[in-house]
């Protein structure tokens, strides 16, 4: 097979979502043209699509080294760095892309999103406005700006102006979900899903709304669809695990929790809910380990200290349990459960004294 034919076949497979097959052909091409930046970039895009962001970053770095004036390579590198959890490095490479080509509207929008996450509101607004100025029909930066400013009326106006845009509808659904207007949230989520049927995040929000409406069967379907669309979705895994735990399907739940923690070792919800499941099964040493990890991740949540204290009390470690109960009480003294646990533990501790 000729080089050009192999390259075209690889591109076709890539576009069809057959990433493994496309990758095999790209690597064959790379054997004969190891310095080809386009092939390195395409391999990076495959790794990015598969969620292997460390590998994607390495490939994009190689591509930009071979073609340092090609802006799209810096853009792809920045996107993978962001997805890999390296926002500052991502910002740096988005800016390198824009230095070469200031007209990349997606780069300006993504800079806005990153700056917003980093608490740089003024920089985020400037970037969103630069993105919007480049294209009057580009909805995303306008929606992001309205969301950042908590401008619900502007979000509604944008939803009418861009009826096929899923993002404005998603944010409206999320806003009404947060304020307890679940029926309205469900309507907006359904419209968003119709506009973007392959968006896993919309499915997750729909599932959360169903849970709030006490429709667990439909919630399960939403989370399963989200996981099918994105097998690396930690929220989908955790929510499915929670539902399995509630149904007493502990083996399946444990698989989901472990997978979630494999993908996101610092995920607090996964650690806490997994610990709760283990406690239900009387697997106290394992539950204790999960709660200890959760406390390290965020020592400022009184419920975690309390739950860890409960397990320690159950296994007779009264002094350590008491310290945790007091920690929980000091953070939220109005919670009666914490006071009760302190009193019970003091009684047990004094009962041990000679």
Written overview of the protein:
- The protein is mostly helical and 354 residues long.
- The protein has 21 helices and no strands.
- Helix 5 runs antiparallel to helix 6, helix 7 packs antiparallel against helix 8 (121-134) and helix 10 packs antiparallel against helix 11 (166-178).
- The radius of gyration is 25 Å and the shape is globular.
- The model has no long low-confidence stretch (mean pLDDT 91).
List the defining traits of the structure above.
mainly alpha, 79% helix
What is the first-to-last residue Cα distance? 87 Å
- Which class best fits the helix and strand makeup? mainly alpha
Radius of gyration: 25 Å
How much of the sequence is in beta strands? Answer: under 5%
User: What are the secondary-structure elements, in order, as H or E?
Assistant: HHHHHHHHHHHHHHHHHHHHH
- The proportion of residues forming helix, as a percent range, comes to over 70%
Averaged pLDDT: 91
Summarize the structure.
The chain is an all-alpha fold and 354 residues long. It has helices at residues 3-15, 19-32, 37-49, 53-66, 71-83, 87-100, 105-117, 121-134, 139-148, 152-161, 166-178, 182-195, 200-212, 216-229, 234-246, 250-263, 268-280, 284-297, 302-314, 318-331, 336-352.
């Amino acid at each position: 097979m000729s080089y050009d034919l192999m390259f075209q076949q690889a591109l076709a497979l890539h576009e069809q979502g057959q990433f493994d097959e496309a990758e095999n052909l790209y690597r064959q091409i790379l054997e004969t043209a190891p310095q080809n930046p386009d092939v390195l970039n395409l391999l990076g895009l495959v790794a990015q699509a598969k969620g292997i962001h460390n590998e994607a970053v390495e490939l994009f770095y190689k591509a930009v080294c071979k073609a340092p004036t090609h802006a799209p390579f810096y853009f792809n590198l920045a996107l993978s760095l962001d997805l890999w959890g390296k926002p500052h490095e991502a910002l740096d490479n988005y800016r390198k892309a824009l230095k070469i080509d200031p007209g990349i509207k997606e780069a300006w929008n993504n800079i806005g999103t990153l700056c917003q996450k980093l608490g740089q509101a003024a920089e985020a607004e400037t970037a969103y406005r630069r993105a919007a100025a480049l294209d009057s029909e580009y909805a995303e930066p306008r929606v992001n700006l309205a969301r950042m400013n908590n401008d619900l009326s502007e979000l509604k106006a944008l939803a009418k102006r861009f009826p096929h845009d899923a993002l404005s509808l998603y944010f409206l659904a999320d806003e009404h979900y947060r304020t307890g207007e679940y029926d309205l949230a469900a309507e907006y989520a359904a419209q968003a899903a119709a506009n973007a049927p392959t968006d896993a995040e919309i499915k997750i929000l729909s599932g959360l709304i169903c849970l709030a409406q006490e429709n667990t069967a439909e919630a399960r379907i939403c989370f399963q669809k989200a996981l099918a669309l994105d097998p690396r979705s930690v929220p989908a895994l955790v929510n499915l695990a929670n539902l399995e735990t509630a149904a007493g399907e502990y083996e399946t739940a444990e698989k989901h929790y472990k997978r979630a923690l494999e993908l996101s070792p610092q995920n607090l919800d996964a650690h806490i809910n997994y610990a709760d499941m283990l406690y239900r099964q009387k697997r106290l040493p394992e539950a204790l380990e999960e709660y200890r990890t959760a406390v390290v991740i965020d020592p400022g949540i009184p419920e975690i200290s309390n739950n860890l204290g409960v397990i320690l009390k159950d296994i007779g470690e009264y002094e350590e349990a008491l310290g945790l109960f007091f920690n929980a009480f000091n953070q939220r003294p109005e919670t009666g459960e914490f006071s009760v646990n302190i009193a019970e533990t003091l009684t047990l501790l004094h009962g041990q004294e000679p």
